[in-house]
Each structure stands twice: as C-alpha cells, then as structure tokens.
Design a protein that fits this description.
Chain A: It comes from Cryobacterium breve. The complex is a heterodimer of chains A (326) and B (305). With 326 residues, chain A is mainly alpha-helical. Helix content of chain A is 76%, strand content 0%.
Chain lengths: 326, 305
C-alpha cells in the first residue's frame, strides 16, 4: 500500500511538472502567438492597429501577472479548456483532440504490446541459442531495423505495398465514403487501413525489445541458480523459460515506459506519412499552421498519456516483483 | 590484512594518472576485436570521409539545379535528379556533412552534460540528489520527439544550430541515468574509500578516480546519443521544421514527399537518403556492441557464458 501511495504521489508531482513545463515553454520562447498570427497576415499587406487589437483580443494575449496567468492556466487545464483552434476555427481544441486521440491510442497501444511480446520471445531465443543463426539474425536484423527512421520505413511500405503493389490504402484511417461508427464493416475497414502504419511501428520498435531482452537474459544465464538448475539435470527448456527468462523479463519491463515515449514520437512521423487522423497528424497540422493552442494541448495530452502508461507499468512491476515494494 | 595485499586489490586504474593515449588505443583495440563493431567502424569511417571530402567526391555541386527535372538513373546522374533539377548523388554526398556534424556535435554535448550531471548526481546524497532524480526522470519520461517538435515550432526555421540545441535538450537524460547508477556502484568500492581517507576533494574523486573507470559507458552513451541525434535531426527536417534549403538527408526526404516522388515512381529519391540515415545510425549501434564488451565481459563475442 505504501508502494502504491508513493507511486501515486510521484505521478501527481510529475503531472504537475509536465503541466507547468507546458505553461513555461511558450513563455520562454521568443515572440508570441498573436505576433505570429499578425506576421502571417502581414505577408498579405500592412496590418492596421485596429486589426492588431482585434487579433490580440481574440488570441487572448496574456494579461495580469505571471502568477495570475499560471493560476488561470491550471484552472483551464483542470476543466479541459484549451481554447479555440486557429486552424479549425471555431472548433475547440478539446473536441479536436478528443476525435484524434482514440486512433493513436488504439494503434500505438496495440502495436506496442505485440512488439513487446514478440521482441521478448525472440530475445530469449537469441540469448539461449547464442552464437547460432537464431541469435545472429534477430540481433543484427534488430539493430539494423531499429536504426531505420520511422518515417523511412513508413515511406517505403507506402510506396511498395501501397502505390506499386496496390495492396493497401495509401492514406487515412478509413475509406473516404465511411463514417466512424461501431459496426462490423467499419471496424474491418479501419483495421485494413491500420495495417501499414502498424507494421511500420512494429518493424522499427521490435529490435529494441530483442536486444534489451537478449542482454538481460545473457546476464541472468550467468547466475548461480541457473547453473544449479542445469547441474540438477533439468530440461534445457525449463531452465531457459522457468528460471532465466522469468527473472530477465523484469528489468526489461522498466524500460517499457521509457521506450513508449520513443514509440509515440515515431508514431507521430508515421501518422504524417499515412495521413492517419491521430494525434501525430493533428500535431503536424498544428505546427505547420502555427496553431499554438492546439499544439500546446496536444503536447500536454501526449505527455500525460505516456506518464499514465508509465504509472501502470510501475504498478505492474510492483505486483510482479515483491522486492520493489519494500 | 597487510598493507601490500591492500595495494594489490586496488584496481590498476588507480596507480598513477592513466595515460589517455594508451587508454584510447586499448579501447579501440577492444572495439576492433568484435567483428560487428569492426563493420560499424568501417561504415562510420566511410561516412566521415564522404562528409569531409564531399566537394572532391561529389560529381556536381549539391545546389546546382540546371539539370533535367525528375530524371531517372543515367550515366550522368547515377541516382537521377530531383524535381528541382539537382543531382541526387551529389546531394546524398553533401548530405552526409549535416548528419555527421549533427550526430557528433549533439552527441558530444549531450554526453558532456550527461557526464557532469550523472557523476555528480551519483556521488551526491540527500535532498539535492532527490531533486536531480526527479528532473532527470521527468526528461526521460517526456516523449522527446513531440517536445522537439514543439520547441522547433517556436524557434522558426532555426537551421542546424537550432536542431543541435533541441536534440541536446531532450537527449542528455538517458546517459545521465546510466552513468549515475554506475557512479553509485563505484562509490562504495575500496579505491574510492581510500581516496576519501587520503583527503581528496569530492570533485577530484569524481572526475579523477571514478570517471576513468567508466570510459566504456561514456563512449557507449556518446554513440547512443549520436544515433538518437541523427534520427531526430532527420525526423525534424522531414517534417519541414529545419531550414528546408539546407541539403541534408532529412530535407531530401521532405522534398521527395512534397514533390510527390511516390506518385512519379522515383523510389531512389526515397530509398537513398533513408538508407544512408539507417546505415550511419546502424554503424554507431554496431560500434556499441564492441563498447558493451569493454564494460561487461559477458557481452564480449566468443566468450562462453
């Protein structure tokens, strides 16, 4: 219980820090959103003082002391009030994020779990069969594949399987005629559209899990209790899975949360390539259009999602390894 | 226990200041003894040569746009030309400069920060260590690419300097954490205790006694940070967040997608820059296989478990 409480406390502190960082970022940077919008207008001709005043009022140029702004900001965040998007005016930022988030959560969440399971199994195999082709192939292949930039893998798959072979749709998360609903045909359509993005993320993230598991597994195989189990004449498979892999998996689990941040980042690029209507594509749209309210809110949501995923992994770790609860 | 056995037990790194040249040659020899790392060193060397001697190797200038547009591969243009009429092969060769530069600079800066913070944090105890712990964990857990994208969006079209800065801001925490845990395990060793009792200052203990024992980890985190920097730089430029007039592999992919190379079927335009990014990043990961062997004999190739 104390373990859980300390983890919850840490989560709250981290959430607060992330929210505050999000508040500070735009204020540490040169220029202001209103200036950026005015600069964009100025490309088409001179901006009159009245237009400037109107823009500043509309974009909410901060008034009051920094402390008042901060309190106001915290209040808005708690109420999911992130203002209005410039690009998709008059839609609110919160509703835009709400539409995009499920796509990314399902895609990244599902692929990450598959990659973790497959990568861990391959890593166990590689460490157990060290020196054979079962080791060399996944290790070298994994190293090479994890050096692929996410967007490059995405572009190649898109080109060869999407354009040249024509097996998969080239953009979007569902057919242009379909409307999102919970029905069999729509879910199948969405699944079909998600195959290429999912494969991209799988290919690129798999290598990290294989290498991580292989190296912890090799360390575990050198431990005395493994030698003891072998000396007792247990079957090799029992020693590998029940003795070594079971203990080697724990340190690998801690890197799960950290790796997740990387996968989320990679998925942003993948979504850009496939025009997949998730958080990443929305962030890209916001950045291109200098839509700062949308951009800030998306960054906050992405960070909070990763923090929560880490929290869940931490709790899971505490359940699996009683030593951490002390 | 007699004094003489005490001295024997102290690791060899302690007897006199280590000769930096000997340390480096020995490290290179250890890395070179691993076949995978040997491939990595050769690849990296190839890219460094391409970057340094780009004007001599490239058939044309990277920005010369007087050739036919979107041409296929030919004897004159081995990899064809871009939609703006530039020679793709020359752009690839010149592009090595940006990636190698960003990789080494950002990797080096991240590693310096990681060493400073990781070592002092590992040696400190009490409240200060808790505060640093929190900050480092925060930077580790915040997804790096979105943070980079946001910062880069505020610092409009900052060019390579901005990209290095952004990559360093988000890239130092991992190395700091690895170095910290190693510092913590080293600080309870006998040779550190001996140094404390002989009255050495904390700074000297950290940087003269502990630091030399972590050479392999530091080299490892340098190559790790460089790999991350190269991938991040390419990602940011692919999104159009760098200076899109720079000739680099990231901007080549940016222009390839924006000029619809996918539709015109010029797959080389996509394939070549991405392959170079991957090979450069792989070369550093491969070198790290040899570096792993420095710190952990179990990971050395050919040794039986």
């Amino acid at each position: 219980m104390r373990y859980l409480l300390s983890k919850v406390g840490l989560l709250l502190l981290t959430l607060w820090a992330a929210v505050t960082l999000n508040f500070l970022l735009p204020r540490l940077m040169p220029g202001s959103p209103a200036d950026a919008a005015i600069a964009k207008l100025a490309q088409n001709g001179p901006v009159s003082p009245s237009t400037r005043a109107a823009i500043e009022a509309q974009l909410g140029v901060p008034t009051g002391s920094a402390w008042d702004q901060y309190l106001q900001y915290l209040n808005n965040v708690v109420h999911f009030d992130f203002g209005v998007s410039y690009t998709f005016f008059p839609q609110s930022v919160a509703s835009l994020v709400g539409t995009a988030l499920p796509w990314t959560l399902v895609l990244v969440g599902f692929v990450t779990i598959v990659a973790f399971v497959c990568g861990t199994l391959l890593g166990v195999l590689a460490a157990w069969k060290r020196g054979t082709w079962l080791d060399t192939l996944p290790t070298v292949g994994g190293t090479f594949a994890s050096a692929f930039p996410y967007f490059w893998t995405a572009l190649l798959l898109l080109f060869f399987l999407g354009y040249v072979a024509g097996w998969f749709p080239t953009s979007g998360a569902y057919g242009s005629a379909a409307t999102p609903e919970f029905s069999g045909p729509f879910l199948l359509d969405a699944l079909y559209h998600s195959i290429l993005p999912a494969t991209t993320i799988l290919i690129t993230s798999l290598g990290g899990w294989i290498l991580g598991m292989r190296s912890t597994m090799i360390n575990t195989l050198g431990d005395d209790y493994v030698t003891f189990a072998e000396a007792n004449g247990l079957r090799p498979r029992t020693v590998a899975i029940r003795y070594a892999a079971r203990n080697a998996i724990l340190p690998n689990l801690t890197s799960f949360g950290l790796a997740l941040g990387g996968v989320v980042g990679g998925s942003l690029l993948v979504e850009r390539v496939f025009s997949y209507p998730g958080v990443g594509y929305l962030l890209y749209t916001a950045v291109v259009n200098q839509d700062f309210p949308l951009m800030q809110a998306l960054f906050l949501i992405i960070t909070i999602s990763v923090l929560l995923a880490n929290f869940i992994v931490d709790i899971l770790y505490g359940i699996l390894d009683p030593r951490t609860r002390r | 226990m007699s004094t003489s056995t005490m001295i024997v037990k102290i690791p060899s790194g302690h007897d006199g200041p280590a000769n930096p040249f000997r340390v480096i040659t020995r490290a290179v020899a250890t890395i070179w003894s691993v076949p995978k790392a040997r491939i990595g060193v050769a690849l990296l060397l190839l890219f460094v040569i391409l970057a340094v001697f780009a004007p001599l190797i490239a058939p044309y200038s990277a920005t010369e746009n007087t050739f036919g547009r979107s041409e296929d591969m030919s004897a004159d243009h081995w990899l064809g030309t871009t939609a703006a009429g530039q020679d793709v092969l020359s752009q690839i060769i010149y592009g090595a400069r940006v990636s190698v530069f960003v990789g080494f600079t950002a990797g080096l800066l991240s590693t310096i920060i990681a060493v400073l913070i990781g070592l002092s944090w590992g040696y400190l105890r009490g409240f200060a260590a808790e505060v640093i712990n929190f900050v480092v964990n925060l930077f580790l857990v915040i997804p790096a690419l979105p943070l980079m994208i946001v910062i880069a969006a505020y610092l409009q079209n900052g060019g390579i300097g901005m990209i290095v800065l952004v990559v360093v801001i988000t890239g130092w925490a991992w190395g700091a954490r690895v170095l910290r845990s190693q510092t913590q395990s080293l600080r309870s060793r006998d040779f550190v205790t001996a140094a404390v009792f002989s009255g050495e200052s904390p700074a000297r203990i950290v940087f003269r006694e502990i630091l030399p024992n972590m050479t392999s980890l530091i080299v490892g985190s340098f190559f790790g940070a460089s790999t991350a920097a190269i991938l991040a730089e390419a990602g940011l430029e692919f999104l159009g967040l760098g200076d899109s007039t720079t000739v680099s592999w990231g901007t080549m992919l940016f222009w390839a997608q924006n000029s619809n190379a996918l539709l015109t079927g010029q797959w080389v335009l996509l394939f070549a820059p991405g392959l170079c990014i991957s090979l450069l990043a792989t070369s550093m990961s491969l070198i790290n296989f040899g570096v792993d062997g420095l710190s952990n004999p179990r990971l050395r190739e050919g040794s039986k478990r």
